[in-house]
Amino acid sequence: MTVDQLNPEPLWEQLASIIAARIKAGDYQPRQVLPSEAHLQQEHGVSRGTVRRAVQALGERGWTVTIQGRGTFVADRENWPES
Predict the structure, then answer these.
(1) How do residues 22-71 score in pLDDT, each as one tens digit?
(2) Residue 82 has what pLDDT?
(3) What are the b/e assignments for 56-76, b being 16+ CB within 10 Å?
(4) What is the pTM of this model?
């Protein structure tokens, strides 16, 4: 699953949805660090800014927690948004 450059939905929103789906599917476990920005950028063929905006959105929605100097981690299940 990757972003669709021709989809009118913003790329960062598509990427955030992809990562959230992977969290729900168990690909990323609670308290596990997410892949680096560089890895996500390369994996999905998007800019660093797109990755940063997607990760920011995931944090705002409760999917992730970012700790400065340590990385971005999957939030505990009880903090996940209802969906």
Answers:
(1) 999 999 999 999 999 999 999 999 999 999 999 999 999 999 999 999 99
(2) 83
(3) ebbeeeebbbeeeeeebbbbe
(4) 0.93
Residue 73 corresponds to which tokens in the numbers above?
């981690």
Helix (H, G, I), strand (E, B) or coil at 4: coil
83: Cα within 13 Å, side-chain hemisphere: 14
Residues in CB range of 62: below 8 A, 6 or more apart: 75, 79, 80, 81
Q: Give yes or no for residue 83 having a pLDDT over 80.
A: no
The DSSP symbol for 80 reads S
Residue 32 makes CB contacts below 8 A (sequence gap 6+) with 73, 74
Q: How many helices (H) and strands (E) does the chain have?
A: 3, 2
Structure tokens at 2: 């990757």
